[in-house]
Automatic annotation (TrEMBL):
<dbReference type="GO" id="GO:0060676">
    <property type="term" value="P:ureteric bud formation"/>
</dbReference>
<dbReference type="GO" id="GO:0030202">
    <property type="term" value="P:heparin proteoglycan metabolic process"/>
</dbReference>
<protein>
    <recommendedName>
        <fullName>Heparan sulfate 2-O-sulfotransferase 1</fullName>
    </recommendedName>
</protein>
<dbReference type="Pfam" id="PF03567">
    <property type="entry name" value="Sulfotransfer_2"/>
</dbReference>
<keyword id="KW-0472">Membrane</keyword>
<keyword id="KW-0735">Signal-anchor</keyword>
<keyword id="KW-0333">Golgi apparatus</keyword>
<dbReference type="GO" id="GO:0000139">
    <property type="term" value="C:Golgi membrane"/>
</dbReference>
<comment type="similarity">
    <text>Belongs to the sulfotransferase 3 family.</text>
</comment>
<comment type="subunit">
    <text>Homotrimer. Interacts with the C5-epimerase GLCE.</text>
</comment>
<feature type="coiled-coil region">
    <location>
        <begin position="24"/>
        <end position="51"/>
    </location>
</feature>
<dbReference type="GO" id="GO:0015012">
    <property type="term" value="P:heparan sulfate proteoglycan biosynthetic process"/>
</dbReference>
<keyword id="KW-1015">Disulfide bond</keyword>
<keyword id="KW-0812">Transmembrane</keyword>
<dbReference type="GO" id="GO:0010467">
    <property type="term" value="P:gene expression"/>
</dbReference>
<keyword id="KW-1133">Transmembrane helix</keyword>
<keyword id="KW-0175">Coiled coil</keyword>
Length: 356
Protein backbone atom coordinates (compact mmCIF):
# COMPACT_ATOMS: atom_id res chain seq x y z
CA UNK A 1 0.00 0.00 0.00
CA UNK A 2 2.88 2.34 0.87
CA UNK A 3 4.52 1.64 -2.53
CA UNK A 4 1.29 2.39 -4.39
CA UNK A 5 0.93 5.69 -2.54
CA UNK A 6 4.50 6.69 -3.54
CA UNK A 7 3.96 5.81 -7.21
CA UNK A 8 0.52 7.48 -7.39
CA UNK A 9 0.49 11.06 -8.83
CA UNK A 10 -0.37 13.79 -6.28
CA UNK A 11 -3.72 14.57 -7.92
CA UNK A 12 -4.78 10.93 -7.77
CA UNK A 13 -3.63 10.74 -4.16
CA UNK A 14 -5.81 13.74 -3.34
CA UNK A 15 -8.78 12.25 -5.20
CA UNK A 16 -8.32 8.96 -3.35
CA UNK A 17 -8.27 10.75 0.02
CA UNK A 18 -11.37 12.77 -0.88
CA UNK A 19 -13.17 9.65 -2.11
CA UNK A 20 -12.31 7.82 1.10
CA UNK A 21 -13.53 10.74 3.23
CA UNK A 22 -16.80 10.92 1.28
CA UNK A 23 -17.28 7.18 1.64
CA UNK A 24 -16.75 7.39 5.40
CA UNK A 25 -19.22 10.28 5.72
CA UNK A 26 -21.75 8.30 3.70
CA UNK A 27 -21.31 5.24 5.92
CA UNK A 28 -21.66 7.29 9.11
CA UNK A 29 -24.81 8.90 7.70
CA UNK A 30 -26.27 5.47 6.87
CA UNK A 31 -25.41 4.19 10.35
CA UNK A 32 -27.15 7.22 11.89
CA UNK A 33 -30.24 6.57 9.76
CA UNK A 34 -30.28 2.91 10.81
CA UNK A 35 -30.05 3.88 14.49
CA UNK A 36 -32.92 6.37 14.05
CA UNK A 37 -34.99 3.69 12.29
CA UNK A 38 -34.24 1.23 15.08
CA UNK A 39 -35.36 3.80 17.66
CA UNK A 40 -38.63 4.44 15.78
CA UNK A 41 -39.24 0.69 15.51
CA UNK A 42 -38.63 0.21 19.25
CA UNK A 43 -41.16 2.96 20.04
CA UNK A 44 -43.72 1.47 17.66
CA UNK A 45 -43.30 -1.97 19.23
CA UNK A 46 -43.64 -0.44 22.71
CA UNK A 47 -46.89 1.33 21.72
CA UNK A 48 -48.22 -1.93 20.26
CA UNK A 49 -47.37 -3.86 23.43
CA UNK A 50 -49.15 -1.25 25.56
CA UNK A 51 -52.28 -1.45 23.38
CA UNK A 52 -52.26 -5.26 23.61
CA UNK A 53 -52.08 -5.16 27.41
CA UNK A 54 -54.85 -2.56 27.65
CA UNK A 55 -57.07 -4.58 25.29
CA UNK A 56 -56.43 -7.75 27.31
CA UNK A 57 -57.45 -5.98 30.52
CA UNK A 58 -60.57 -4.60 28.80
CA UNK A 59 -61.59 -8.09 27.67
CA UNK A 60 -61.08 -9.38 31.20
CA UNK A 61 -63.46 -6.71 32.49
CA UNK A 62 -62.87 -3.35 34.19
CA UNK A 63 -60.98 -3.26 37.47
CA UNK A 64 -62.75 -1.39 40.25
CA UNK A 65 -60.79 0.88 42.58
CA UNK A 66 -62.57 -0.58 45.58
CA UNK A 67 -61.40 -4.10 44.72
CA UNK A 68 -57.75 -3.19 44.29
CA UNK A 69 -55.64 -4.70 47.01
CA UNK A 70 -52.94 -2.45 48.48
CA UNK A 71 -50.22 -4.57 46.90
CA UNK A 72 -52.01 -4.58 43.54
CA UNK A 73 -52.14 -0.77 43.58
CA UNK A 74 -48.39 -0.49 44.21
CA UNK A 75 -46.00 1.42 41.94
CA UNK A 76 -42.21 1.45 42.28
CA UNK A 77 -40.02 4.04 40.56
CA UNK A 78 -36.33 3.27 40.10
CA UNK A 79 -34.86 6.55 38.83
CA UNK A 80 -31.58 4.89 38.01
CA UNK A 81 -28.28 6.76 38.02
CA UNK A 82 -26.13 5.86 34.96
CA UNK A 83 -23.29 3.36 35.49
CA UNK A 84 -24.30 2.12 38.94
CA UNK A 85 -25.14 -1.49 37.92
CA UNK A 86 -28.64 -0.29 37.07
CA UNK A 87 -29.01 -2.56 34.02
CA UNK A 88 -27.98 -5.62 36.02
CA UNK A 89 -30.58 -4.83 38.68
CA UNK A 90 -33.30 -3.93 36.16
CA UNK A 91 -32.83 -7.24 34.36
CA UNK A 92 -33.80 -9.01 37.59
CA UNK A 93 -37.07 -7.04 37.61
CA UNK A 94 -37.71 -8.10 34.00
CA UNK A 95 -36.93 -11.73 34.75
CA UNK A 96 -39.33 -11.79 37.71
CA UNK A 97 -42.26 -9.76 36.32
CA UNK A 98 -44.13 -12.64 34.66
CA UNK A 99 -43.70 -14.97 37.63
CA UNK A 100 -44.59 -12.34 40.24
CA UNK A 101 -47.31 -10.79 38.07
CA UNK A 102 -46.39 -7.13 37.70
CA UNK A 103 -45.49 -4.83 34.81
CA UNK A 104 -42.08 -3.34 34.04
CA UNK A 105 -41.89 -0.11 32.02
CA UNK A 106 -38.82 1.79 30.82
CA UNK A 107 -39.09 5.58 30.98
CA UNK A 108 -37.29 6.58 27.77
CA UNK A 109 -36.59 10.32 27.73
CA UNK A 110 -35.24 12.15 24.67
CA UNK A 111 -31.42 12.07 24.72
CA UNK A 112 -31.62 10.59 28.23
CA UNK A 113 -32.43 14.04 29.61
CA UNK A 114 -33.05 13.53 33.35
CA UNK A 115 -35.10 16.74 33.69
CA UNK A 116 -38.68 16.68 32.39
CA UNK A 117 -40.57 19.70 31.12
CA UNK A 118 -43.39 20.89 33.37
CA UNK A 119 -46.03 19.52 31.00
CA UNK A 120 -44.26 16.15 30.85
CA UNK A 121 -44.12 16.07 34.64
CA UNK A 122 -47.92 16.43 34.72
CA UNK A 123 -48.36 13.70 32.08
CA UNK A 124 -45.97 11.38 33.88
CA UNK A 125 -47.63 11.80 37.28
CA UNK A 126 -51.07 11.23 35.71
CA UNK A 127 -49.84 8.08 33.93
CA UNK A 128 -48.22 6.61 37.02
CA UNK A 129 -51.19 7.17 39.30
CA UNK A 130 -54.16 6.41 37.01
CA UNK A 131 -52.88 3.75 34.60
CA UNK A 132 -54.62 0.82 36.32
CA UNK A 133 -53.75 -1.64 33.57
CA UNK A 134 -50.07 -1.28 34.46
CA UNK A 135 -50.48 -1.85 38.20
CA UNK A 136 -48.66 -3.19 40.03
CA UNK A 137 -45.88 -1.48 38.11
CA UNK A 138 -42.11 -1.11 38.19
CA UNK A 139 -40.94 1.99 36.31
CA UNK A 140 -37.27 2.62 35.59
CA UNK A 141 -35.33 5.27 33.73
CA UNK A 142 -32.60 7.90 33.92
CA UNK A 143 -34.74 10.67 35.43
CA UNK A 144 -34.18 12.86 38.47
CA UNK A 145 -36.42 12.62 41.51
CA UNK A 146 -39.91 14.04 41.03
CA UNK A 147 -42.04 15.04 44.03
CA UNK A 148 -45.52 13.63 43.35
CA UNK A 149 -46.98 15.54 46.33
CA UNK A 150 -46.62 18.80 44.38
CA UNK A 151 -49.27 17.54 41.96
CA UNK A 152 -51.90 16.79 44.62
CA UNK A 153 -51.45 13.02 44.45
CA UNK A 154 -52.83 11.19 47.48
CA UNK A 155 -50.82 7.98 47.11
CA UNK A 156 -47.19 8.47 46.10
CA UNK A 157 -45.08 5.80 44.38
CA UNK A 158 -42.27 3.99 46.16
CA UNK A 159 -38.84 5.30 45.16
CA UNK A 160 -35.73 3.10 45.22
CA UNK A 161 -32.23 3.67 43.86
CA UNK A 162 -28.59 2.56 43.84
CA UNK A 163 -25.52 4.80 43.93
CA UNK A 164 -21.82 4.17 43.49
CA UNK A 165 -18.42 5.50 44.54
CA UNK A 166 -18.25 8.77 42.52
CA UNK A 167 -14.85 8.23 40.91
CA UNK A 168 -15.56 4.58 40.05
CA UNK A 169 -18.84 5.65 38.44
CA UNK A 170 -17.13 8.35 36.36
CA UNK A 171 -14.36 6.00 35.21
CA UNK A 172 -16.93 3.41 34.16
CA UNK A 173 -18.94 6.02 32.25
CA UNK A 174 -15.80 7.41 30.57
CA UNK A 175 -14.87 4.03 29.07
CA UNK A 176 -18.49 3.14 28.33
CA UNK A 177 -18.76 6.14 26.00
CA UNK A 178 -15.69 4.92 24.10
CA UNK A 179 -15.92 1.15 24.09
CA UNK A 180 -19.47 0.27 25.10
CA UNK A 181 -20.17 -2.90 27.03
CA UNK A 182 -20.98 -6.58 26.60
CA UNK A 183 -24.73 -5.90 26.69
CA UNK A 184 -24.95 -4.40 23.18
CA UNK A 185 -21.39 -4.78 21.83
CA UNK A 186 -22.26 -3.77 18.26
CA UNK A 187 -23.80 -0.42 19.16
CA UNK A 188 -21.74 2.60 18.11
CA UNK A 189 -20.92 4.83 21.10
CA UNK A 190 -20.61 8.61 21.12
CA UNK A 191 -16.85 8.70 21.76
CA UNK A 192 -15.99 5.56 19.81
CA UNK A 193 -12.47 5.70 18.36
CA UNK A 194 -11.04 7.83 21.17
CA UNK A 195 -8.29 5.61 22.68
CA UNK A 196 -7.19 8.08 25.35
CA UNK A 197 -7.13 6.51 28.82
CA UNK A 198 -8.84 8.09 31.80
CA UNK A 199 -5.42 8.79 33.34
CA UNK A 200 -4.30 10.63 30.21
CA UNK A 201 -7.56 12.60 30.14
CA UNK A 202 -7.13 13.77 33.74
CA UNK A 203 -3.43 14.61 33.19
CA UNK A 204 -4.36 16.77 30.17
CA UNK A 205 -7.33 18.41 31.88
CA UNK A 206 -9.86 16.94 29.44
CA UNK A 207 -13.55 17.84 29.64
CA UNK A 208 -14.83 14.24 29.76
CA UNK A 209 -13.01 13.56 33.03
CA UNK A 210 -13.33 17.00 34.61
CA UNK A 211 -14.52 17.18 38.23
CA UNK A 212 -17.78 18.74 37.00
CA UNK A 213 -18.63 15.35 35.44
CA UNK A 214 -18.79 13.90 38.97
CA UNK A 215 -21.86 16.05 39.69
CA UNK A 216 -24.63 13.57 38.88
CA UNK A 217 -25.79 11.50 41.85
CA UNK A 218 -26.62 14.56 43.96
CA UNK A 219 -28.86 16.18 41.30
CA UNK A 220 -30.58 12.85 40.57
CA UNK A 221 -31.69 12.71 44.20
CA UNK A 222 -32.22 16.45 44.56
CA UNK A 223 -34.79 16.62 41.76
CA UNK A 224 -36.19 19.06 39.22
CA UNK A 225 -35.32 22.36 40.90
CA UNK A 226 -32.84 24.55 39.01
CA UNK A 227 -30.49 24.69 42.00
CA UNK A 228 -30.17 20.89 41.92
CA UNK A 229 -28.21 21.15 38.69
CA UNK A 230 -26.03 24.04 39.83
CA UNK A 231 -22.67 22.25 40.10
CA UNK A 232 -21.26 22.40 43.62
CA UNK A 233 -24.45 23.66 45.27
CA UNK A 234 -24.53 22.97 49.01
CA UNK A 235 -28.32 23.41 48.98
CA UNK A 236 -28.60 20.69 46.33
CA UNK A 237 -26.61 18.25 48.45
CA UNK A 238 -28.70 18.98 51.54
CA UNK A 239 -31.90 18.49 49.54
CA UNK A 240 -30.57 15.23 48.09
CA UNK A 241 -29.85 13.97 51.62
CA UNK A 242 -33.32 15.00 52.76
CA UNK A 243 -34.97 13.19 49.85
CA UNK A 244 -32.87 10.07 50.37
CA UNK A 245 -34.04 9.81 53.98
CA UNK A 246 -37.63 10.97 53.60
CA UNK A 247 -38.71 10.08 50.06
CA UNK A 248 -36.84 6.88 49.21
CA UNK A 249 -37.89 3.48 50.53
CA UNK A 250 -34.37 2.08 50.12
CA UNK A 251 -31.13 3.25 48.51
CA UNK A 252 -28.38 0.69 48.02
CA UNK A 253 -24.81 0.89 46.78
CA UNK A 254 -23.30 -0.83 43.77
CA UNK A 255 -20.54 -2.33 45.88
CA UNK A 256 -23.13 -4.18 48.03
CA UNK A 257 -25.81 -4.86 45.43
CA UNK A 258 -26.66 -8.37 46.60
CA UNK A 259 -27.51 -7.09 50.10
CA UNK A 260 -29.71 -4.39 48.54
CA UNK A 261 -31.61 -7.04 46.57
CA UNK A 262 -31.95 -9.23 49.67
CA UNK A 263 -33.50 -6.39 51.66
CA UNK A 264 -35.93 -5.57 48.84
CA UNK A 265 -37.03 -9.19 48.64
CA UNK A 266 -37.66 -9.29 52.39
CA UNK A 267 -39.57 -5.99 52.48
CA UNK A 268 -41.37 -6.04 49.09
CA UNK A 269 -41.88 -9.71 48.18
CA UNK A 270 -44.80 -8.80 45.86
CA UNK A 271 -42.16 -7.60 43.39
CA UNK A 272 -38.89 -9.19 44.46
CA UNK A 273 -39.77 -12.72 45.58
CA UNK A 274 -36.96 -14.90 44.21
CA UNK A 275 -34.66 -11.95 43.41
CA UNK A 276 -31.77 -12.93 45.69
CA UNK A 277 -31.49 -16.45 44.33
CA UNK A 278 -31.79 -15.15 40.77
CA UNK A 279 -28.99 -12.64 41.39
CA UNK A 280 -26.73 -15.32 42.83
CA UNK A 281 -27.34 -17.97 40.19
CA UNK A 282 -28.86 -16.26 37.16
CA UNK A 283 -26.93 -15.62 33.97
CA UNK A 284 -27.94 -11.95 33.94
CA UNK A 285 -26.71 -11.06 37.42
CA UNK A 286 -23.56 -9.31 36.16
CA UNK A 287 -24.67 -8.96 32.57
CA UNK A 288 -23.39 -5.50 31.76
CA UNK A 289 -19.65 -4.93 31.98
CA UNK A 290 -17.93 -1.91 30.46
CA UNK A 291 -15.36 -2.97 27.87
CA UNK A 292 -11.68 -1.96 27.93
CA UNK A 293 -11.98 -0.27 31.33
CA UNK A 294 -8.61 0.53 32.96
CA UNK A 295 -8.40 1.38 36.64
CA UNK A 296 -7.04 4.88 37.33
CA UNK A 297 -3.70 5.36 39.08
CA UNK A 298 -3.38 6.67 42.64
CA UNK A 299 -2.09 9.96 41.22
CA UNK A 300 -5.22 10.38 39.09
CA UNK A 301 -7.51 9.60 42.01
CA UNK A 302 -5.61 12.01 44.27
CA UNK A 303 -5.96 14.80 41.70
CA UNK A 304 -9.73 14.33 41.43
CA UNK A 305 -10.07 14.17 45.20
CA UNK A 306 -8.69 17.70 45.48
CA UNK A 307 -11.89 18.97 43.89
CA UNK A 308 -14.67 20.42 46.06
CA UNK A 309 -17.15 18.72 43.73
CA UNK A 310 -15.69 15.31 44.51
CA UNK A 311 -15.77 16.10 48.22
CA UNK A 312 -19.50 16.87 48.03
CA UNK A 313 -20.41 13.88 45.86
CA UNK A 314 -18.32 11.65 48.10
CA UNK A 315 -19.96 13.07 51.22
CA UNK A 316 -23.35 12.21 49.73
CA UNK A 317 -22.16 8.72 48.82
CA UNK A 318 -20.82 8.11 52.34
CA UNK A 319 -24.11 9.42 53.76
CA UNK A 320 -26.09 6.96 51.61
CA UNK A 321 -23.73 4.10 52.47
CA UNK A 322 -24.05 4.75 56.21
CA UNK A 323 -27.85 4.82 55.96
CA UNK A 324 -27.92 1.59 53.94
CA UNK A 325 -25.62 -0.19 56.37
CA UNK A 326 -27.75 1.01 59.29
CA UNK A 327 -30.88 -0.46 57.69
CA UNK A 328 -29.08 -3.69 56.87
CA UNK A 329 -27.72 -4.05 60.42
CA UNK A 330 -31.28 -3.99 61.79
CA UNK A 331 -32.67 -6.38 59.18
CA UNK A 332 -30.16 -9.23 58.89
CA UNK A 333 -27.87 -11.42 60.94
CA UNK A 334 -24.60 -13.03 59.87
CA UNK A 335 -24.01 -16.74 60.41
CA UNK A 336 -21.06 -18.73 59.06
CA UNK A 337 -20.22 -15.93 56.66
CA UNK A 338 -23.75 -15.69 55.20
CA UNK A 339 -26.45 -13.10 55.81
CA UNK A 340 -29.93 -14.12 56.93
CA UNK A 341 -33.05 -11.96 57.02
CA UNK A 342 -34.51 -11.60 60.51
CA UNK A 343 -37.97 -12.96 61.14
CA UNK A 344 -40.71 -10.67 62.44
CA UNK A 345 -39.45 -9.23 65.69
CA UNK A 346 -42.58 -7.66 67.15
CA UNK A 347 -46.05 -8.80 68.20
CA UNK A 348 -49.22 -7.34 69.70
CA UNK A 349 -50.45 -7.91 73.24
CA UNK A 350 -52.71 -6.41 75.93
CA UNK A 351 -55.44 -5.87 73.35
CA UNK A 352 -58.51 -4.09 74.81
CA UNK A 353 -61.41 -4.08 75.06
CA UNK A 354 -61.63 -7.83 75.41
CA UNK A 355 -64.05 -9.56 73.11
CA UNK A 356 -66.89 -11.46 74.77
Amino acid sequence: MGLLRIMMPPKLQLLAVVAFAVAMLFLENQIQKLEESRSKLERAIARHEVREIEQRHTMDGPRQDASLDEEEDMVIIYNRVPKTASTSFTNIAYDLCAKNKYHVLHINTTKNNPVMSLQDQVRFVKNITSWKEMKPGFYHGHISYLDFAKFGVKKKPIYINVIRDPIERLVSYYYFLRFGDDYRPGLRRRKQGDKKTFDECVAEGGSDCAPEKLWLQIPFFCGHSSECWNVGSRWAMDQAKYNLINEYFLVGVTEELEDFIMLLEAALPRFFRGATELYRTGKKSHLRKTTEKKLPTKQTIAKLQQSDIWKMENEFYEFALEQFQFIRAHAVREKDGDLYILAQNFFYEKIYPKSN
